[in-house]
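Bench notes, afternoon.
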Amino acid sequence: MKSNTVQILTTVLSNVAVFGGLIFLILELRQNSEIALSQVRLARDNAILEEFSHIYGDNDVLSLHLKLRKGDFESITELEKERLFWFERVRYQRFEDVFFQYGRGMIDQIAFDESMSFAANRVSLWEWLEIPMGDKEMNDFVSNLRESSTFLRDTWSDKFEDWIEKEI
């Protein structure tokens, strides 16, 4: 009888240890997931800071973005358009990365919403520049966002779309 009790007690203790190990593993996975999200957010923030440092550190790029914000589209030269093409092409690819990361739970909702709103305001500019927009799923999402009643267009984006309509 005593060996049977010891065997039952050993089995119960083993099950409790396994259960405790599973709980610990779940907590560790959650913590690792939160750390990974933080690292992705930090990398994204660093990329944004680097982009803005480039804009503000280069008078040519800064003056080009100023033309966009002021709605002075007619004065954009072919060289500036080419510069803008490469700048915006990289930006589109970064938004593809954000879309990809969000779809896999690697980026938080706030960063995703901000990025997709920013992208939605740039669609007409990307079309004008003939940026290759290869991610159909992201493009469809951004298109639906642009058509939603909650989407807020930037002033420069409205002006640009009006200008494009006049140019056609």
